Amino acid sequence: MLTRRIHYYSGVTIALFVTLHLINHTVSLISIEKHIDMMTQLRKIYRNIFAEILLLSAVGVQIYSGLQLYRSKYKTAKGFYEKLQLWSGLYLAIFFVIHLSAMMVGRFILELDTNFYFGAAGLNHFPVNLFFIPYYSLAIFSFFAHLASIHYQKMKSRHKDAGIQSGIILSIGVIMIFLLMYGLTHGFQGISIPDAYGILVGK
User: Which domains does the chain have, with CATH numbers?
Assistant: First the structure.
């Protein structure tokens, strides 16, 4: 019970940041400049020692507690949303480890600004985009799938249309994938990445 509660509150912390992050990426539909401008403003909130320690701690707790919950439930999970919660959570744990490691290497070793171009580089170069497109798409879907699963578990005994509501959340996730891939690739036409970020795609 304590593990589940800790997992929940660390998840809320992460969800708030991810929501801001996704909104920021959605602004790429307007322009790269607007995306970077918004990120600059958001960094005033989360890019400081206190916010970063809080966020990294929440991610660490989320991964550890999530794996504990996965081990205790994966054999007994029943129903679509209960299984979806486990598998989406497992993918998010893997994604967080890879993504945060990449961000740390980018910031502190490669000394790159981990802005729009850092995230978009892999999406706009063949053949590495064959990895990065599904990698990011699955992360976005897993985030919404996890939310949908939690919503269903909490609401199924209260509302008969909990499944429909969770389905809507999943649909929003699919739409978000399309919008972000569209924005981060300039309408699927590709974006010219500055030379400094070429190292990310083997240039």
Answer: 2-196 (1.20.1300.10)
